[in-house]
């Protein structure tokens, strides 16, 4: 039957139009497995059904699963590129290049279109009139930079609600770190002149900033405003210190560039981008593609590199120039430049780096890719060994490449919600996370709530089936989950219950409480226990903790619209005493979010690990905004 269907599809493709467009390939379950674009749809799609000897192993596997091909016509090839990228982002087909960490790196957003602009951490670049700078290596780096710029250039740090309702200046004005635009102590024009230095600094024009600040310091000294002059002197030294930490490529350039490099073998491929802003390297970024060999003679290097660029620049900052390690040809370079121009509104050059300066940048990207490849492969292989141990200890038929975990959460008697967290190849796949608002259950009933969640989840045949479902709980919760899966006709899905065992031991007359993770399997009396340092344990307990965190985050987001309770109430492990300490030291929750971890760690009762955890939980709502609520 499958063979006849395959031949039917192949015959159908012969009648495809010869226009540009996007083609969508589906499997027997009507699930999208690949999305591509083409200048000539008929020729491109027919190539998949030609002699398979010239295909890569991945393409041969793809072709074996094609049971339906649809297409969408576009007016131009540029439109085909844009449509392909948006469809891949939406459907995440199995056989397309998938950039799992495409939202992990933050930007600094300067709301320059506002009357009184301020600085924000942003996870996406939008066409909203703001200026975007980055990407940076971490959220902590962004918070530190924003805090430095706010203090140095007297930028308001209050949120818009506070700004619009304030009737008198806050403490930040009293200590000389703000000009109080909230109560009109400074005009819009003068405010923008004051904060212009921050914009120049972020654009890499630090020398202009230092020159302007030095002149202000000189005038302040002449007018005997020595405290003002001293603050300017300290700010100048801080700017110089940051400048010294940035690698200078071209001190006279104002051009923004990204240089792309890669390294890989049969185990995978790592693509590295080096970000140069105004002649200075501000950071690098890695994307690891497991199971993809860039050296395979059957892989078209130009095709996969262009596919990467097309997806990478959907949400990320688009520079003036993109330097490539491969010659993709003049036509493709021009086309890719037009695609990026359509997205950014600015002229973008995409070219093979042949000049010395461009070549040096690409060489830097290649060297970083080679260095980081070892780390990623080692991590990937460690995860693989952990998954193999899970398969062996749980008696699974297949390696659990996709694991799902569900958490039911009811906060202080409020409405019940649930979270679905997915790990793929042992790491979080956040694009597959889902949130559920329980609709059919009144009161607290975990069994009924789980029944609703699993029923709604497995109605979605377009989702890939998990090789393992993890339930937080012991034998009772496991038996309930098995009963539910049987009732909805999915008893073929392996399930395991995870619970902590609490024991007491007498050691030097002190009672010591310890915890041990236990895993309960259907039909087995005794639980499975892993060694405390086993990678398998890290994967399984990690997905349980992530599901719990994600459910609590959902509660917080729901209650933000109906409650004035502090966000600190939802930070796991933060008691009343520590909350009081934080709110005494910082004037608002927003200021806590902007703080550096070192500042929080210095407070009584805190340490560096706790500080980083607090900041991570309080700021991760930016990252979670795009996660779908399940219908």
TrEMBL record:
The UniProt entry's GO CC annotations, sorted and at most eight, read: cytoplasm; excinuclease repair complex
Task: State the CDD domains in the record.
Answer: GIY-YIG_UvrC_Cho
Could you tell me which PROSITE patterns the record lists for this protein?
GIY_YIG (PS50164), UVR (PS50151), UVRC (PS50165)
> Could you tell me which residue ranges the GIY-YIG domain spans?
18-97
Keyword terms of this UniProt record: Cytoplasm, DNA damage, DNA excision, DNA repair, Excision nuclease, SOS response
Locations listed in the record: Cytoplasm
- Pfam families linked to this entry: GIY-YIG, HHH_5, UVR, UvrC_RNaseH, UvrC_RNaseH_dom
Question: Which InterPro entries does this entry report, sorted A to Z?
Answer: GIY-YIG_endonuc (IPR000305), GIY-YIG_endonuc_sf (IPR035901), GIY-YIG_UvrC_Cho (IPR047296), RuvA_2-like (IPR010994), UVR_dom (IPR001943), UVR_dom_sf (IPR036876), UvrABC_protein_C (IPR050066), UvrC (IPR004791)
Which GO biological process entries does UniProt record here? nucleotide-excision repair; SOS response
Q: What is its main location?
A: cytoplasm
Asked if the keyword Cell division belongs to this entry, the reply reads: no
Domain UVR, residue spans: 207-242
UniProt GO molecular function: DNA binding; excinuclease ABC activity
What task does this protein carry out? The UvrABC repair system catalyzes the recognition and processing of DNA lesions. UvrC both incises the 5' and 3' sides of the lesion. The N-terminal half is responsible for the 3' incision and the C-terminal half is responsible for the 5' incision.
NCBIfam families noted in UniProt: uvrC
Q: What family does the Swiss-Prot or TrEMBL record give for this protein?
A: Belongs to the UvrC family.
Q: What is this protein called?
A: UvrABC system protein C
What species is given as this protein's source? Answer: Bdellovibrio bacteriovorus
